Amino acid sequence: MLASRHQWITCAESCTGGLVAAYLTEISGSSAYFDRGFVTYSNQAKHELLGVKWLTLHQWGAVSEQTVREMACGALSAARADISISISGIAGPDGGTEDKPVGTVWFGWANRNGQVLTKKRRFLGDRHQVRQQAANYALTVVLEKFL
Fold first, then answer.
1. Which of 78, 143, 132 is nearest to 105 (CA)?
2. Whole-angstrom Cα distance, residue 7 to residue 41?
3. 86 in Cβ contact with 15 (< 8 Å)
4. Count of alpha carbons within 13 Å of 29, Cβ hemisphere only?
5. Is the pLDDT reported for residue 147 higher than 90?
6. What is Dmax (Cα atoms) for the chain?
7. Does domain 9-146 have CATH number 3.40.1110.10?
8. Which of 6, 12, 52, 85 has an alpha carbon within 20 to 30 A of 118's alpha carbon?
9. Half-sphere CA count of 57, side-chain side, radius 13 A
């Protein structure tokens, strides 16, 4: 669908560690719609590669609506894409808190028309299952809301 519309997509991934990019490039001919993605696991990487503000990271944390919004917009700009996906979450088995339990994942999507969408989901399962569900959900929203 992206290729037929002459659109490009990029992703900024934290907890999924490049899984969305892997799914996108699993299809032959993906170079017609995917040029690059960003795996920004650390706060430093989010700041340096995507322009996420230090204030945002300190005030809200990496797993937050504010951070994925900045990640999505930063990736859109850095990749010169038409659509971007951002993901930051706690895949587990450790790292969860009362406010952000394991399985909590924030998503962001942005496009060149200025549309920005964010959503929080909680996935159940082990680390592998949380990451897979997150990547699948991120791409499903692209299909439903942006294409």
1. 132
2. 26
3. no
4. 5
5. no
6. 45
7. no
8. 6
9. 17
